[in-house]
Amino acid sequence: MSSVKIMVCMGPGGIASGGAEVISAFESELRQANVSADIHKGCSLHKVGCFGLCSKDVLVDLIIDGAKTTYQSVKPEMVRRIVSEHIIGNLPVAEWTADENYHNFYKKQVKVVLSDCGRIDYENIDSYISEGGYKAAEKVFAGMTPEAVTAEIKNSGLRGRGGAGFPTGVKWEACRKTAAGQKYIICNADEGDPGAFMDRAVIEGNPHAVIEGMLIGSYAIGASRGYVYIRAEYPLAVERLKYAIKDAHERGFLGSNIFGSKLKFDIQLKLGAGAFVCGEETALIASIEGQRGMPRPKPPYPVFQGLWGKPTVINNVETLANIPYIIKKGSAWYSSYGTEKSKGTKVFALTGKVKNTGLIEVPMGITLREIIYDIGGGIEGGKALKAVQTGGPSGGCIPANMVDINVDYESLARVGSIVGSGGMIVLDEDNCMVNMAQYFLQFTQSESCGKCVPCRIGTKRLLEILSRITKGKGRDGDIELLEKLSRDIKSASLCGLGQTAPNPVLSTIKYFRNEYEAHLKGKCPAAVCKELLTYYILEEFCKGCGACLRACPSKAITGEKKKLHKIDPAVCVKCGACFDVCKFKAVKKE
Amino acid sequence: MEKTLEKIMKEEIENEGNLISILQNIEARFGYIPEDAVNWFSKRLDVPASRFYGVTTFYSQFHLKPRGRNIVTACCGTACHVKGSEKLISAAAMELNLKNDEDTTENGEITLERVACLGTCSMAPVVLINKKIHGKMTLEKLKKELKLLKKAAQ
Amino acid sequence: MVKLNIDGRMIEVAEGTTILNASRMLNIEIPTLCNHPKLTPFGGCRLCLVEVKGVPRPLTSCTTPVSEGMEVTTSTPALEDLRKTVLELILSDHPNDCMICEKAGDCTLQELAYFYGISPYNPPLLKGDKGGFLGERRIYEKRDGNPFIERNMEKCILCGRCVKVCDEIQGVGAIDFAYRGFKSKICPPFERDLDCEFCGQCVAVCPTGALTGKMWQLRGRQKDIKEVDTTCAYCGTGCNITLHVRKNEVVRVTAKEDKWNEGWLCVKGRFGYTFINSPDRLKKPLIRIAPKHIADFGFRISDLNSEVRNQQSAIFKEVSWDEALDYISAKLKEIKEKHGPDSIAGLSSARCTTEENYLFQKFMRAAVGTNNVDHCARL
To answer: B77 contacts in A (CB within 8 Å)?
Structure first.
């Protein structure tokens, strides 16, 4: 019998679309069809990490004698046909295989961090090793000095992928040069930015790359202990990482006498408890120490005084997962991607109103247009692109007319946004920019630690002003007030959270001032802000079907069957249920 | 309770735990942070109870009151927000008859809560029902799920 | 030593000194609310921001250590503008009822608001609908059954000084920060009533009217008060205290930071002063001349009901010190002669100084002739 490998996406998107059910369907179908008495012999079934195009999940790769076929949007009930026609009959089920759009999605991507994600079995350390895993660490431990390792990372031009973009090699070097009996390396997996999930996908899809990255880092800076600070909201990532650490221990990649050296390195997991601010490095340190996650002013920087007062390097998941590949293939190879100052590739979580949502990895400097239209397949439902929000609550909005901008640290900063951790949310004409600013402020305000005045009270006041604008109660001068307060909060706040919290406000005012002005005049151009809307039914379209009447939770709609229905504005709670349910577009909101 | 607390103590010593992991352990076992448990650990560890309280209230994972037997968690991440999570939440609150700031139904069966981001943004909007993830949620689907929960509770 | 330049003036200070402390050495005032010289720096109020050449954003001078060749500017229009905004934000979440606030006239926040010209009627930034500052304000249910510390947490600016003093100086940790963001508050565990030693160090370091003494309420403004430095008589530690006297009555006790006890006191020293103006206080020696049968019961004056107490003159006779001492010496001699020196014992007090205790044992041994001498602290 030929060799058959079935790879099922069990990434964040795969699971949410029913990946586990697809796997058990394969198991039972294979058993029933008696394909192989021992599933792992001739025909093997693998759970793998994120493929990337989550909107077409569950994605399944079927590799028969080295030839790969991808199935998209697989449901458990489709498995029987795939098994009988393709695995047994050797004839792909053409109507379910990935289409052109799927291949276009990958065309402009360059996979480094994600190169093994979706290809290797995350539960199987041998799967990682067979793809060259732990070779980089071996190379480092066997024949490179710590100086050479830091130099290699410095030359690669790799910058922190968590958001700030600080050169990783420089950080490592500073820590290496600091004399101390004990040093630490911390992997920051507290991916708190709403709208970003690359760290989750990397840990879940390729946990050993993160471990190997930490191992190399520990060698470079001279740390014998490492911590992974990971969000408790990612239970799966925690589980897979735990498992991977245990495996790495058993193989001797962690523990004592690593690769025959006298060095030891251990990794401990620390679970976050639900606080966005703990992604800030000094707050993260406080949290690992078991305290309230309140940041402290820098200097002193953690590379000099970090965890328990000892020199500490804190790197983001994606940064660390890059390390093994850079060591293996060389800094020159890595820095051949990207722009002059932003080297290599970056993973983005492409979401929102774009056709292809998912995880993408692109070379730095690619244009936003290429990402949205070539990779993302354009805007959903034929609507018009309005803006792209990057960098989450610390970032900003890039308006549609700037879509040809290069995506790199410098270019995005120039237009008032940031690369950030890599969230990229596409907004269309139905999104209200004042509402977006309010959304982000709501988030940062509730996640503020409360230590410093500008962030604790300032973001609250910003939010209050934004809220009254979206309620149609804005006052003359509110826009200017927002701008002034935003600038002051940015300058005076203690940590990165407060220093960047006003960015969504400033960037939406910068590019969409007209929307703010419209709100001051009592109109929400995108018809989002509830208080500024009225719902009514258009006589010429209403068929009197009664769907809206049944959907209305507040009984604001009246009307007899097959006759015109009416909405009582005094009772209407503006939930939009009627608008969503009407098949004849008879419900109008303004 | 005493026995459970002793057990937690032993585990935390073995795993080099700290204040946060102790509280996580308590939360996992009791479903919330009982005052008595805090006072017990405060005495045993000679750490002021105020420190425990400070940490408990800082992190959103900890609860001071028991929650419902069923937990519905609506993701409020950016992608979910853009795709209408607010609508889902207000509809769910209405369906569960939750008023004002209440997050748990009167009979203590269902708790509706928000989470900043579940990292499943490409499936937005996302709702977690008793730890099972539901992607591309719609008003109808959510109402159906909630009705099922309510029925099972009766 | 490190050399640096602050506002154009050179100074050399020890390594590790903060910019704030170096500036103070030059008598340059930098406003701050959360910094306290005896507590670890916090960096929360953001008033002490300064500009350092080569650093793109302002730094808090209270947390930033000096470095060689540093060039610091402590006041620029931009910095003053930021400070103004910060103060205005603080006051937008503050009751602003200075006219009836216990702390008025002695309040750092009030002082800064004054010098920066911030009033609810003329705020440069956050003017609300009808004058007044803009926005929601924290409101707390009051929960204060204790007799010593008055907590008005709406006035709390979350500078954290009380939390630090309770932890770092007193080692108690009765209070801590709770919640986060705008909902942050400082409270005892589970927001119960304060249950601690009531040393009142928190009251001493609070820069606003959030923490004051219950016994001080409505007893007078600082300007009408005469300060009298003295030594606490409660124990041999001998803390320096300052009595705040109004109309010849002690209305409050504080301690000065430059004295050896560094401004710290215990519950007795800080709050146990009412005996001073108590009508029951003994001011002159009394000799008991009570009828024998009453004396046999061993009453204390305070145990007697007021009627009996009013007949004090019938039981005790007020005498001069000479008379009293003569009386004691005569009695001691009489006992010694009749029963021998070992029938007498002396018990000394922890409220006396070492020198006084030395003299007392000397007296017992040399004058009375017995080794029967002891001290209450040994019991």
So the answer is: 194-195
Residue-level pLDDT at B101: 76
pLDDT digits (tens, 9 = 90+) for B51-70: 999 999 999 999 999 999 99
Determine the topology of domain A433-520 in CATH: de novo design (two linked rop proteins) (1.20.1440)
C181/A447 touch (CB, cutoff 8 Å), yes or no:
yes
Interface test with B, best of A75, A184, A233, A449 (most B CBs within 10 A): A233
Domain boundaries, chain A: 4-98, 125-334, 345-428, 433-520, 534-589
Smallest CA-to-CA distance from A195 within B79, B115, C322 is with B79
Q: Which domains does chain C have, with CATH numbers?
A: 2-75 (3.10.20.740), 149-216 (3.30.70.20), 222-277 (2.20.25.90), 282-319 (no CATH), 330-379 (no CATH)
Taking contacts as CB-CB distances below 8 angstroms, the residues of chain B near A57 are: 122-123
Tell me: the pLDDT tens digits for C83-96? Answer: 999 999 999 999 98
DSSP A285-307: HHHHTTS------SSSPTTTS-G
CB contact under 8 A, B49 and C179: no
pTM for this model (two decimals): 0.90
Picking from B42, B47, B53, B58 by the largest number of C CB atoms within 10 A of its own CB, the best residue to mutate is B53
H or E stretch including C333?
helix C321-339
Taking residue A35's Cβ as centre, other Cβ atoms within 10 Å add up to 18
Measure CB to CB from residue C180 to each of A300, A448, A488 and give the nearest one. A448
Q: What is the pLDDT of residue C310?
A: 53
Q: CA A200, A393, A107 angle in degrees (round to 5)?
A: 50
Fold (CATH) for A4-98: Glutaredoxin (3.40.30)
Cβ-contact B17, B25 below 8 angstroms: yes
Domains of chain B: 2-58 (no CATH), 70-153 (3.40.30.10)
Does residue B43 carry a pLDDT above 80?
Answer: yes
Which residues fall within 8 angstroms of residue C2, CB to CB, at 6 or more apart?
Answer: C12, C13, C14, C15, C17, C66, C67, C68, C70
The CATH architecture that domain A345-428 belongs to is Roll (3.10)
Cβ distance C173 to B38 less than 8 Å, yes or no, reads no
Closest CA to C133 of A481, B62, B4: A481
Please give the angle made by the CA atoms of A333, A336 and A339, to the nearest 5 degrees: 150
Using the Cα atoms of residue B72, residue B77, residue B82 and residue B86 in order, give the sign of their dihedral.
Answer: positive
Pick from C63, C92, C183: CB nearest A297: C63
Q: Which chain C positions have a beta carbon within 8 Å of B53's beta carbon?
A: 176, 178, 187-191
Beta-carbon separation of A194 and B59 below 8 A: no
What Cα–Cα distance (Å) separates residue A85 from each residue in A31, A37, A88?
Answer: 15, 19, 6
Q: Which residues of B touch C (CB under 8 A)?
A: 35, 38-39, 42, 47-54, 57-58, 64
B42 CB neighbours in chain C (<8 A) are: 189
Among candidates A298, A450, B54, which has minimal Cα distance to C166? B54
CATH architecture entry for A125-334: 3-Layer(aba) Sandwich (3.40)
Average pLDDT across chain A, whole number = 92
- Identify the chains in contact with C, defined as 3+ C-beta pairs within 8 A: A, B
pLDDT at A1: 53
pLDDT at A156 (0 to 100): 96
Residues of chain A with pLDDT under 70: 1, 35-41
- pLDDT value, residue C298: 55
**Which numeric CATH code is attached to A534-589?**
3.30.70.20
What angle do helix axes A317-329 and A207-221 make, rounded to 10 degrees?
80
Q: Of A200, A283, A288, nearest to A238 (Cα)?
A: A200
